[in-house]
Amino acid sequence: MTRQEIVQVIHDILQDQLELPSMKAFHEDARLNEDLYMDSIMILQLILHLEVDMGFDIPDEMLVPKDFRTAGSLADFLERQQEPAAAEESV
To answer: Which CATH class is domain 3-85?
Structure first.
């Protein structure tokens, strides 16, 4: 999945699954807490949708606040999470 596709997935989950009312503020630099008004429960719901609906593997020990600061930093994190899976598939 490309980075742009990951950003679109994040957008779609926030809009369609979480029905976030602040979606007009969504862009890659939008801060999840300050700009999109997401609390910790909403972020956990987002993680759950990414794992269950999209197949991302996000181990609890990998959850670091800096990766969930903006939509873009979350996309970067998810892109890095895909790399080990891609390496395993090529073996």
So the answer is: mainly alpha
Q: Tens of pLDDT along 38-80? A: 999 999 999 999 999 999 988 888 888 899 999 999 999 999 9
Domain chopping of the chain, boundaries = 3-85
Say if residues 23 and 14 touch (Cβ distance below 8 Å).
yes
Q: 73 Cβ partners below 8 Å, 6+ apart? A: 66, 67
The whole-model pTM stands at: 0.86
The confidence score (pLDDT) of residue 4 equals 95
Angstrom distance (rounded) from CA 52 to CA 63: 16
